[in-house]
Amino acid sequence: MATTNQTIINALFDDDDVLLSSVKQVREKGLEIQEVYTPFPVHGLDKAMGLKETRIAIAAFLYGALGLTTAISMTYGMMIVDWPMNIGGKPSFSWGENMPAFVPIMFELTVFFAAHLMVWTFFFRNKIYPGAKAQNPDPRTTDDKFLMEVIAGGDHSDEEILALLKDSGAIEVSVNTAEHA
Amino acid sequence: MHYEAPIRKPLIEGDKSYHDITVDVVRPVESSAPKSWWLVFSLALLAFLWGVGCILYTIGVGIGTWGLNKTVGWAWDITNFVWWVGIGHAGTLISAVLLLFRQKWRMSINRSAEAMTIFSVIQAALFPGIHMGRIWLAYFVFPIPNQFGSLWVNFNSPLLWDVFAISTYFSVSVVFWYVGLIPDFAMIRDRAVKPVQKHIYKILSFGWGGKAKHWQRFEEVSLVLAGLATPLVLSVHTIVSMDFATSVIPGWHTTIFPPYFVAGAIFSGFAMVQTLLIIVRKMFKMEEYITIQHIEMMNIIIMLTGSIVGIAYITELFIAWYSGVEYEQYAFLNRATGPYWWAYWSMMTCNVFSPQFMWFKKLRTSLMFTFFISIIVNIGMWFERFVIIVTSLHRDYLPSSWSMFSPTFVDIGIFIGTIGFFFVLFLLYARTFPVIAQAELKTILKSSGDNYKKLQEKQEHGDH
């Protein structure tokens, strides 16, 4: 997101469907939406705002592959190379012959790596961590209100945008000139 | 876009708005505890402290304080371990499998069910720990080279698979649960007035603000975690069953064990969810969210999995006879008619017979009856593990080694202690955490709230 002294116009909604149609109207006018804060995931909002699809599932797949590789190298290194054990007359000749006994470990580590590293990525990308400052400017947006931040400018005057937002169903509108990150 | 077939009954009752959900979910956190909470909590705490005493005594003196003998080297400890792990399974089933199937009724129960999972896996993990005898050497189970040279753990051993399965299951469940909790903690944070409370929930909520991109990632993460947790939960009890199935003890050495254990785990887990939720909905007045319909759905699952367990018992008997292996045949004959016949028939009555009452709608929608059956099922599932473990061991290959097992006060004390610990954790959770996944629940209000459903019906009739 751009960091300037942009003027931001805030519009507060009390219904997810109204918010969704308003987002569409604002985008049709060619205005840019900086952010939308909602108390719960509003389905279709990411598409309406034109957000790209998240790639976190791809990351999870790669993490899982890393976990599987770790399990394979660990069992190979420990049981075949470093300290082959002869258990019940069934010695560890090769990793391939022993593999069926390692399937549970391979599975568990795949899941372990995929789940934990994905969630860390989720925290990291969202910049959320224990004790972080609340990201929502208005505390009501975790209860039942929906906040849209529109970047003012372009061919539209602030008044025009305010009127558009009000007409599309916003219950509160305000102009915010404070510096935004 | 919020359409739902009129035949589906509302999942949220009492004409709720988004704000009402917030207020109802946060109420137990913001108000002081009801008397019933203090009563149950004190009892649980006492049981827990008694258990702590027995555990310390065991660690100090050794596992000779238990009723184990040379023949029965595993008894209550492993019974309790399997019982607790099994109970945990329902939480993941509700939060992960029902998410993949897009079952909306999971939403008002998944948080508590998942909490139950975590707390019961904690109880389960205690038992192998103290059964080691020298708990300070517990790190030997991890693949780290020890100080005596590079002797590694044995990856061929089901007991080691168990270490990996339980630790993965526990840690992934915690993470899955916590990711879902973050937006709800943020809601409590934004409402909190007292500075200390606000600060605590600020830390817990990780600064969550509900940005559109973050919700998009949140949903993807939930979906992928559910996809990972589903095979994970099945693997956990499969591996627990392999602790037995890969050995050569008659009565244990069977390939039916993995599916049979998983079905039993879900069965006992749902029974425990019923026990807990019937208490929670009453104590914290959540009847409009955890409706009779939720209870009924879970009873149907109990009936189904109970019947699967019943078929597994009968299959086991048949295969023992059909195999022609005398040891196997004797093991099962001994279970049903030997000195532990009472345990076997308690198991049969509680697990196979009692869930069949749920065929009657009147019974499965009755709270009192559900509560009663949920306790019966939990007792039955404890006996199942006791029967599998002790009756297979107590008749050794040499009749001169035959023996019986009787628990000492320490065995009993530790078991009671874990029940106490479980309830202590659950009751503390119920007072400080949002017991209903309110952010998720708000997404279905317009399709499954009774006020919206009525509105929808009116509009439909207007069209004709």
Features:
heterodimer, A: about 180 residues, alpha+beta, Alpha-Beta Plaits, 2 domains, four-stranded antiparallel sheet, 6 strands, about 50% helix, B: about 475 residues, mainly alpha, Formate dehydrogenase/DMSO reductase fold, about 70% helix, about 0% strand, globular
Describe the protein's architecture and organization.
The complex is a heterodimer of chains A (181) and B (464). Chain A has two domains: 65 residues, Alpha-Beta Plaits; 71 residues, no CATH class. Chain A is 48% helix and 15% strand. In chain A, the strands form two sheets. Chain A has a four-stranded antiparallel sheet, with helices on one face. A two-stranded antiparallel ribbon of chain A has the order 3-4. In chain A, a hairpin with a 2-residue loop joins strand 3 and strand 4. Chain A is rod-shaped, with a radius of gyration of 26 Å. Chain A starts with 7 loop residues before the first strand and ends in a 5-residue tail after the last strand. The mean pLDDT of chain A is 86. By secondary structure, chain B is mainly α. Chain B has a single domain, classed as Formate dehydrogenase/DMSO reductase fold, CATH 1.20.1630. Helix content of chain B is 71%, strand content 0%. In chain B, 50% of the residues are buried. The mean pLDDT of chain B is 90. The interface between A and B is large, with 65 and 68 residues.
